[in-house]
Design brief:
The structure is a homodimer of 254-residue chains.
Chain A lengths: L2 H26 L6 H11 L3 E4 L4 E2 L10 E5 L2 E6 L5 E7 L16 E5 L3 E5 L1 H7 L6 H27 L2 H16 L9 E3 L4 H8 L3 H13 L3 E4 L2 E4 L2 H8 L10
Antiparallel strand pairs in A: 1-7, 2-6, 3-7, 4-5, 4-6, 8-10, 9-10
Chain A binds a DNA duplex (30 and 30 nucleotides) through helix 7.
DNA sequence: CGGAACGTTGATAGCTATCAATCGACGTGG
DNA sequence: CCACGTCGATTGATAGCTATCAACGTTCCG
């Protein structure tokens, strides 16, 4: 076996690790989990997985007794569509996140859509663990905190769309994504995989494709970011911060 | 006692009823409560109340052990402010709603602000009841459903700000408010008290005061609405619906 | 009466959308 | 191998929605 093959195998193993560890990392970043809980979440992440094609819609079984699903790789989004074809990506769903909140109200025109190839695992065990504080003291709290953080990010999204310019929206989103990708191990040297097309960015930020393109080019000319070949690097976090005013949600110990 | 005085007294009693009943109506509109549960919520609504002046900020005690507070009269809003003074009303809080979700993450620049005089009551009993399914089978489910509905309305807000024009935003918001005021008994003949200034409307819908004004006047000229003296009447719901595409969240029986 | 808060109106500027066309990358079938 | 179509990114020209600035009217209240 040549060293290249060994390296490739090593890399595959690392990738697999990151995938099966996404949930454990995501929840573990919110508060301290016991080793047993971390191990438990790793096993959930390594369980039988479903594969979804890019652009496919993930059907959410209605009712709150359906088991939740967690993304372990790929990006998805909660999408709302208007009758005339306009669409809004309401919130991005990244590895370690549940596809939808535990109790979701049915809404015509609302779906979960894959932006890349997506792998999901069944989260029924997590829901059960969250209801068994004796054995899993941290998981219940972490699941709650995760939901609260997602709501805080939703408020960020409202503020972005309501009160920020195109330039600020893009900068703010990039900082949010950096903040979210960091704990799940997807960031290296301030860069991370960025699979969104400019059209998706527009639908997420309430902008037209053309204007997204022009805004990105401006940020490139100012050397704030590098975005090519599906990878985004934040070259100047202070400048982005100054432009976007992104404030990460603060978790308080309770 | 003249008949005028009798009528006035009757009216005061009705108003008091509506206030103490706001929580019961709000939660009872989501699913069937037992008579005991309804009575329980009435007593909560009639409990000791706090009074908040217009424009005052309601401090949220950090931590998830603080008892939640419910509004029983008046309007408030969750507000985010940017460093340069821009502000965004993220979500309106109406009678029967909790001031904030059960577990709230601290965020610099986020507050709850009264838009009118506001009366609140302590919701600790509701939280306890929600954890005692044996005695209160419906309340736990209703509280959860209410939170899910609020999240759905937040997604509406995102879509409004991201993908609708000023005219559509205003129409959509008016339909949402009608939808929310109906179950708590505030709507009479398609009209309800509407205490928002045009500046607040702008901060809520991501528009400037001037443009809010012009949009309202257009809708008045088209005879879609009547808005004067703090009262809003929707004269042409079908036309508003056609313009705004408001879809009320659908609760499914589980 | 003066001032503050809110609403209204006009003029102008500016941000962003829309339309149209081009370009490169990629995969497919002839 | 090349023609072809599709998708995404890019660019230019233009239109349009909305913000900003400024001024004025109205109501209310001390």
């Amino acid at each position: 076996m040549t060293s290249e093959l060994i390296l490739a195998a090593e890399k595959r193993r690392n990738v697999a690790d990151i995938r099966s560890a996404a949930i454990a990392r995501r929840l573990g970043s919110l508060l301290m989990l016991t080793p047993g809980e971390t191990e438990f979440l790793h096993r959930v992440g390594a369980g039988p997985m479903s594969l979804w094609a890019p652009r496919s819609l993930i059907e959410q079984p209605a009712g709150n007794h359906a088991s939740p699903r967690y993304i372990i790789s790929g990006w998805a989004a909660q999408v709302r569509e208007l009758n005339d074809g306009r669409r809004q990506l309401v919130q991005l769903v990244l590895p370690g996140d549940p596809l939808a909140p535990q109790l979701q109200i049915h809404h015509r025109g609302q779906t979960v859509q894959c932006l890349t190839m997506v792998q999901t695992v069944d989260g029924a065990a997590i829901r059960l663990a969250a209801r068994d504080p004796a054995n899993f003291p941290g998981i219940a709290a972490a699941v709650e905190l995760a939901a609260a953080r997602d709501r805080a990010l939703l408020l960020d999204q409202v503020t972005r769309l309501g009160r920020q310019t195109a330039y600020e929206r893009v900068a703010n989103l990039f900082l949010e994504l950096h903040y979210r990708c960091l704990p799940i191990g997807l960031v290296h040297a301030n860069g991370f995989a960025f699979p969104l097309t400019q059209e998706c960015l527009g639908d997420l930020l309430g902008l037209s494709v053309v204007h997204v393109n022009r805004t990105l080019q401006l940020m490139r000319r100012q050397n704030l970011i590098t975005l090519r070949q599906g990878r985004l690097t934040l070259n100047d976090m202070p400048a982005l911060q100054a432009a976007a005013e992104f404030k990460p949600p603060v978790l308080h110990r309770s």
